[in-house]
Amino acid sequence: MQRKITSNRTIILLILGLLSAVGPFSIDMYLPAFQTIAQDFNTSVDRVQFSLTSFFIGIAFGQLIYGPLLDRYGRKKPLLIGLVIYITATVFCVVTRNIEYLIALRFLQALGSCAGMVASRAMIQDYYEPREAARVFSLLMLVIAISPILAPSAGAFLLNHLDWHYIFVSLLAIGTIILILTYFYLPESYAGNHDFSLRPKAILGKFWEVLTNKTFLSYCLIGSIASSGLYAYLAGSSFVMQQYFGLSQTQYGLAFAFVASAMIVATQINRAILKRWTSPQISRIANIWQSLVGLAMVGCMLFDVLTLPVLLGLMFCYLLGQGFIFPNTSAMALSPFRALAGSASALLGCIQMAIGALTSALVSYFHNDTPYPMLIVMGAAAVISLCIHFVAGKPSTERTL
């Protein structure tokens, strides 16, 4: 299998990147449409925001299902099933005319999209050692980081020329293309273990085995809590930039793209500095940086100096830190696992998305027509992650599972 990966490295990395990006793209592309959807359904923007929260919950829950399936049946079969679920749910998103149905359908859409996120992480773990895996995660992060640049701008373009439903038509086309590429061009990386029991007690036992691994738990929490600041930004940015600062849909897409470009810069620098520094060292420095930026954002709001250019600059710096934290903490969290890579990847993604769903819900719940809820949650996420890093962010010598 390694020979296959070497000979088709570019196309395989591209497919893994697309599988990782289908979830983020499904999140970012419809963000400029929040106000339009609210008007169409005769509801409020904060109500529409719950369709984003339901998506996060669906990703968190769904990954716990796919993890054991990936370990028992291999990576590809569960992945293809997930993509079919995603495509089916997206079809119904196109035709729905009710906000409650949209919230429910976004949950189902997330259940399908998360198969790609779990499988891509597990497949990287199948192929690469931890330091090389961190570099590959950086490549995937490049693809993931492009989605917030392209998706809101594409969504805003569609809104300017067509109805918001065509955003989901576009996601349907993207999902179909990824399904075709996966079926024909992505080789199986792990044949599966048919001795792996799918009984609830056995599955819970494997998850517990992963969760109690010190390296996994430490870096999972560090990366997940740091990432939750990004989800708070996703939940609040549409209101803050469009309604509070008065940007148009097109301007919002451009501003969102500028902020997201920070992750592209960070991931490419990360690939280079991994040749000299370790993942724990890089992620710790990035944690410190992100915490300082998070506190600066809240401070600027308190002292009433938070103009739009200041906000965009600080957001750029905040996501710059995220671009270093995500690939390194992900690689470290999964480094102790081989046979349980699917379960470990699922648990990592579940915890990350569950915390992300919580922070996005907090931004919606405490919505008060100011940027305060978004900024406070982002600052708190960075500081809490840093505290955990100083207390527990050290690799252990536990055996590989």
UniProtKB/TrEMBL annotation:
| Cross-referenced SUPFAM superfamilies | MFS general substrate transporter
Q: Name one Pfam family in it.
A: MFS_1
Q: Of which family is this protein a member?
A: Belongs to the major facilitator superfamily. Bcr/CmlA family.
> What is the designated name of this protein?
Multidrug effflux MFS transporter
List UniProt keywords, sorted A-Z. Cell membrane, Membrane, Transmembrane, Transmembrane helix, Transport
Q: How does it sit in the membrane?
A: Multi-pass membrane protein
| UniProt keyword Ligase present | no
The UniProt entry, under Gene3D superfamilies, shows: Multidrug resistance protein D
Q: What is the superkingdom listed in this entry's lineage?
A: Bacteria
Organism equals Sphingobacterium oryzagri
Which residues are in the Major facilitator superfamily (MFS) profile domain? Answer: 12-397
Instruction: Please give the start and end residues of each transmembrane region.
Output: 48-67, 79-97, 103-124, 136-158, 164-186, 216-234, 254-274, 286-306, 312-334, 346-366, 372-392
Localization recorded for this chain is: Cell membrane
Q: Which NCBIfam families match?
A: efflux_Bcr_CflA
Cite the InterPro entries for this sequence.
Efflux_drug-R_Bcr/CmlA, MFS, MFS_dom, MFS_trans_sf
